[in-house]
Amino acid sequence: MPDTALSPERRLVTAIPGPRSLELHARKEAAVSSGIGVMLPVYAVAAGGGVLVDVDGNSLIDLGSGIAVTTVGNAHPRVAAAVARQAQAFTHTCFMVTPYDGYVEVCEALNRLTPGDHEKRSALFNSGAEAVENAVKIARTHTRRQAVVVFDHAYHGRTNLTMAMTAKNMPYKHGFGPFANEVYRAPMSYPFRDEGLSGPAAAARAIDVIDKQVGAGNLAAVVIEPIQGEGGFVAPAPGFLPVLAQWCSDNGVVFVADEVQTGFARTGDLFACDHEGVVPDLVVTAKGIAGGLPLAAVTGRAEIMDAPHAGGLGGTYGGNPVACAAALAVIETIEADGLVARAAAIGARLTERLTAIQARDPRLGDVRGRGAMIAVELVDPATGEPDAELTRRVATAAHAQGLVVLSCGTWGNVLRFLPPLDITDALLDEAFDVLAAIFEETR
Ligand code: PLZ
User: Fold this and answer.
1) 156 Cα–ligand 1 center, Å
2) Mutation choice for ligand 1 from 156, 166, 256, CB with most ligand atoms inside 8 A
3) What is the pLDDT of residue 91?
4) pLDDT tens-place string over residues 307-346
5) Ligand 1 within 6 A of CB of 230
6) Which of 83, 219, 315, 414 could form a cystine bridge with 232, CB 3.0-4.6 A?
7) How far is Cα 332 from Cα 72, in angstroms, rounded to an integer?
8) What CATH code is assigned to 78-336?
9) Is the Cβ atom of 232 under 6 angstroms away from ligand 1?
10) What whole-number distance in Å separates Cα of residue 321 and Cα of residue 115?
């Protein structure tokens, strides 16, 4: 049996993926729909402390957190204990049948922690996409309007309504239409590709499109990721979000922040909106909220959240008690372990490492992001054209050397780094030494 012990180190004992992973992957190919893709077919047996151990005994440095989910650390002891305790008490009753206090407590915490000190209410769901859909339902009942505005490069999910809201065709939408209607797209602030357009000017450009093509009187909600995730870690220029939020407020439009990827300490603030003091009407959270258990939420102004008729929102599993126990442990951990500050420190470290590589290598077109949500956009230095091929080569080489790195971006040319916040500086430094060498080798 290979040694699969968890220790905070990069340890390569076979090729990546190793023979046991390959065996499991052959079974996957035979049993799992090929519609479910796998980025790196390394089959996990344990994870935590910034590494992931596979069935062959390899230990990989985790720079992905399962797509920004295990922010407090994988199998964090406080989360694992809370889950075990709750699972032994009861696993489900359905909150809509016979409720329990964990659900209420999570809502109280969300109401307290999300931006703004107005009176709030929350509702719990299972996935980010489901919560985004519910935010739209709530905004529509509140405003009695139908249109929804989203942005270029946006990602909001894979359900029918959220596919319509997501920008990128491949792989999310191709062949899956027809899509929900009354969804309109506005231009995003994308500093690297906007040629110096300021945040307020980019907001004016978006507002003009919204005003001329939709009309505020028809518009229920503007839904935006404060830093776009799948779309390429696009952080809008300063002033973009505040101007947009103010326009929404002036026009009776519900401003919805999709903080599914950015929320819960990820960006070096508890929520990315906090960075510019933006107070959304509704905030959508998921991913990092529960340390890996499926949970999502919509939180916002009481008068908006209470607009749907009684019984109009819900679902069998929404706010499952085990997931709620995990969320309460996550919230406690963020505070106890000082994780907001830790995310900011990780961001500073990664930015420094990447800008050092960038100084010698113009293919690194843009280093951006905040906190433990940092990315580099790779381009052809001569033309500035996106270089997806280089991105693939670097990611593949990184995987082979035991780094779990993800790519993203409309053009597939962005490498993104989303380490769990319990990762050590030593592991981060080792990972970026490996990456620096890969950039040298791919010249
Ligand atoms: N909103 C901002 O990032 C999920 C998608 C992975 P679910 N992002 C990862 C994939 O390829 O399916 C996401 C997000 C933002 C909504 C969602 C959707 O969250 O929990 O995946 O439904």
Assistant:
1) 6
2) 156
3) 98
4) 999 999 999 999 999 999 999 999 999 999 999 999 999 9
5) yes
6) 414
7) 10
8) 3.40.640.10
9) no
10) 25
Give the per-residue pLDDT at 397: 98
User: Across the strands, what pairs with 379?
Assistant: 386
Query: 């004992």: which residue's tokens?
Result: 13
Is residue 103 packed enough to be buried (19+ CB in 10 Å), middle (13-18) or exposed (0-12)?
A: buried
Q: Which residues contact 172 (CB under 8 A, 6 or more apart)?
A: 155, 158, 163, 166
Q: Same CATH topology for 19-75+338-441 and 78-336?
A: no
* Residue 443 CA, ligand 1 centroid: distance in Å: 33
Whether the CB-CB separation of 188 and 155 falls below 8 Å is answered with no
pLDDT of 1 higher than 90: no
Q: Which atom of ligand 1 has the smallest separation from the CA of 154?
A: 2
Supply the pLDDT for residue 389.
98
- CATH architecture of the domain 19-75+338-441 equals Alpha-Beta Complex (3.90)
- Where along the chain do its domains lie? 19-75+338-441, 78-336
Is the CB–ligand 1 distance for residue 64 below 6 Å? Answer: no
C-alpha to C-alpha distances, 428 to 61, 211, 225, 346, nearest whole angstrom: 8, 46, 27, 8
Tens of pLDDT, residue by residue over 196-213, are 899 999 999 999 999 999
